[in-house]
Design goal:
Distance between the termini: 105 Å
Order of helices and strands: EEHHHEE
Strand order of the largest sheet: 1-2
Length: about 140
């Protein structure tokens, strides 16, 4: 072998049926990028499969830990079990509060005021209603 140095040789007679071993050390320089490239080229399916497996294992572990953390919080009572109103209903209530016009104060009453109806409110969501309303403008329920 050209350029190689023999490290160990073990020879016996041909009569003794001993295994003959020659060990050489190569003097050919190797570089890490070449070795890595050779490994990837010869073992590409295993490299890709191993990478995918590692990503799936780590991702699964993260998901399991997040689920356990969430369950532990709910078991300890960290999160309140009070249901929140639905988003549409909250928006309608907010809009109704913003659009509610305060009653204008009369300047000077000239004549005695006629009896007025008591203020009406929706019994489902509590929104103030106009006297002619048949349906609530906030939740859409029929008014009695």
């Amino acid at each position: 072998m050209n350029g190689d140095r023999e490290i160990w040789t073990d020879y016996y007679d041909e009569d003794s049926s001993t295994l003959h071993v020659n060990i050489y050390k190569s003097n050919i320089p190797h570089s890490l990028p070449e070795d890595v490239l050779y490994f990837v080229q010869t073992h590409l399916p295993f490299v890709i499969g191993g990478g995918v497996a590692i990503v799936l294992i780590i991702g699964g572990a993260i998901v399991v830990l997040c689920i356990r953390k969430k369950r532990a919080k709910t078991a300890n009572g960290a999160t309140a079990a009070v249901p929140k109103p639905q988003r549409k209903q909250r928006r309608r209530q907010k809009r109704a509060q913003q659009n509610a016009v305060p009653p204008a104060a009369p300047a000077m009453p000239t004549a005695p005021a006629a009896p007025t109806e008591p203020a009406r409110f929706c019994r489902h969501c509590g929104t103030p209603l106009v006297p002619e309303a048949q349906f609530c403008p906030t939740c859409g329920q029929k008014v009695d």
